[in-house]
Amino acid sequence: MSAAAEFDQPPPQSSAPAGLTIAVVGPTAVGKSALAIDLAHALGGEVINADSMQLYQGMDIGTAKVTAAQMQSIPHHLLDIWPVTQTASVATYQELARATIAQIHARGKAAILVGGSGLYVRAALDDLEFPGVSPIVRAKLEVEAEQLGTAALFDRLLSADPLAATAIGPDNVRKIIRALEVVELKGSFSATLPTYTYLIPAIQIGVTMPRPVLDERIAQRVERMFADGLVDEVRALIDLGLRDGVTASKALGYAQVIEFLDGQLSLEQAHTLTAATTRRFVRRQESWFNRDPRIAWLSGHAPGQLMTQAQSLIAQFSPTIKG
Question: What pTM does this model have?
């Protein structure tokens, strides 16, 4: 199935309960965006982005950001709000997402959160507060990362907070440093994520696929990204300061293309590494979302059935979550 086919033929619109909030979650490449748009058409809703990298201006091809045509006139919020030089802040996102949900509800519309950044979804919906920062502790950890390497800091996090280490993985030095910073300040990073308690009640729909099918979709997506001009997109973003972006420069695909442009990888190696890194990232996404007992999982293998099942789920649970 082509990418465009995922966005064809919106369903007829029906009414939705006032104050309805839906979250469409799951790993990369399962078809979350298409389902969110179909639900927005069916329910009279608006879409809110919960993908941390789609917050960045100009990061379109590598993040599979929906185009204006694919949006099908459905309002989309929290896309393209930050320059690539800005460091991501989940606390800032939390404020923006909650304000956006309130505004959509005030218009009598359903708010449909969509994305694969699990912490951002929880930040928007859950009774979740984020610990402060310590520039002194962070600077110390950044120096240690340069001197000792990412692997050494990951091993330290693995000993101090195995749950956090498993969720973050060994490659994301920025998140490893942040987790160690919180460990030093609070004693545990995982302990700062409380039990799954909604501040904004929601229906969470998880989209899943068999692992071989998803791996093939990832391969096709990466192939399409490079064919559609990812390298040129990265070149343009470098002119806008991408290399200085602590968060944006580490995004899947973008980091590998930067290495290609710097002569550290061949184009084929950048392509292969992007696909492999994306597959590892998907495993971590699955692990994160599988811990949340509130998510109702549906198969994305047959998009037509997915929409029918999602509508049935919403009809079943929406009376219990109205404000």
Answer: 0.82
State the amino acid at position 279 in one-letter form.
R
- Cα angle: 16, vertex 115, 176; to 5 degrees: 145
* Pick from 24, 7, 43: nearest CA to 114: 24
Give me the domains of the chain, ranges plus CATH numbers.
12-128+200-321 (3.40.50.300), 135-192 (1.10.20.140)
Q: What is d(CA 219, CA 278) in angstroms, rounded to the nearest whole number? A: 9
Q: Is 67 helix (H, G, I), strand (E, B) or coil?
A: coil
**Side chain identity at residue 23, one-letter code:** A
Residue with tokens 């990412």: 150
The residue type at 312:
S
38 close to 12: Cβ distance less than 8 angstroms: no
From first to last of the 323 residues of the chain, give the pLDDT tens digit: 344 446 555 555 555 556 899 999 999 999 999 999 999 999 999 999 999 999 999 999 999 999 999 999 999 999 999 999 998 988 899 999 999 999 999 999 999 999 999 999 999 999 988 777 778 888 899 999 989 999 999 999 998 888 888 878 898 888 899 889 888 877 766 666 668 999 999 999 999 999 999 999 999 999 999 999 999 999 999 999 999 998 999 999 999 999 999 999 999 999 999 999 999 999 999 999 999 999 999 998 876 789 999 999 999 887 555 43
Which residues partner with 56 through β-bridges? 82
User: Could you give the dihedral angle defined by the CA atoms of residues 301, 306, 309 and 315, in that order, rounded to the nearest 10 degrees?
Assistant: 150
Nearest CA-CA partner of 297 in 7, 21, 32, 14: 32
